[in-house]
Specification:
418 residues; mainly alpha; Growth Hormone, Chain: A; 17 helices; transmembrane transporter activity; MFS; MFS transporter; transmembrane helix
Length: 418
Amino acid sequence: MKKMLKNRLFMLSFVADMVSNFGDVLYYLAMMNYVLLLPDTKLALSMITLSETLPILAGLFIGMWADQTKNKLDTIVGTLVVRVLFYGIVGLVMGFSPALWIVAVVCIINLLSDIAGQYESYLFMPVSLRVIPNEDREAASAFRQGIGAILRIVFQSSGAVLIGVMTYQQLAFFNAGTFLVSLLITLSIRPALKKLLADNPLKQEVKKEGSRNLLSNMKQNFLASYQAVQGIPVLKAVILVLTALNALFVALTPLMILSIKEMPNFVIFNGATTIAAVSITYLVGSILGSLLTTSLFKEMTITRLTKWVIYVPVLLFVSFYFRFVYGVFACMFVTAILAGVMNPKINALIYRALPENQLATIAAGITTFVQLGMVVMQGVMSVLIVLCAARSIAMIFFLLSLALLVYTIRNVASIVEE
């Protein structure tokens, strides 16, 4: 951690990222409260959810676009300028009386802003290779994850306070201000970053002749990404397992709510506290995992962690089936700790093993692949909730977890990390 704190460029870029994240959290909380003012709350909520989901589906294209962008530093600055302007427009729109058309306009702006934010993150990926030495990348990722989780709790708490004392128009302008601060910080470190890039220029992907078609480019880049991942057995195996795990954990919150409804005793104190404790438990576990990454689990391999975490969903859905609420939270906490350890190790592996000129494309492809599993399972879960009782759903997911356990033991156990 001391190395991270002493690295001025890393810390300033981290602060800039966290300030803009505060703006995102504040916006989301504000809009969740704003829709309650409208008569058609369900439609407004659906529009917001859609605007938050679409950038996930565009991730592969955005990553490819970032890899092919030549002047990455100036483009990063440009994305922040655009986001300041976007939320300035939201501030003007929020001056009108609450209406569904305002939600529609804000959702479109939020969609474009999220795409710009994704683009900015992917642009910075190869630049960050010059900021953090190879041997410190795992620690840097753990630091970002742990401190980021702590700050997210702070952001949510302070956001709730600001919503109580500010108008929605003021909140929108405040949000624009967070991106302005992030822009100013980025401009302050831009000369130092330019010097790093001058000493160690970025490797630029060269476009091949005859590949001007967008779909053709995406196909070629996707195949190249697939081949790159194929060359790293541990990454390939872990991505498949994590995709399945993320899909399984989609059932967690709906199953929790359904269990509380069917069995009022399936609570800790009361229903509201139990539901709130879900996110708190995960954040605390993630923070602890991040702290343990560079100490207790420093020498632990990704494959061994994968073999540990794969038992947890089996126990989780057994706890749901027998309606043992404390068992559910214990499993969630252990999962959060192990995920908090695994994520920095996987990020370090990606930065270390994948070609720099395709780093954003491959990372976007991995993220899209993992999240698509969640999207599919959300659809399945929405059907199961209508057709089945909580214990039946728990049994279905227990069997799926058991199948994943068998698959992991047979396919990941033999992989040796370099």
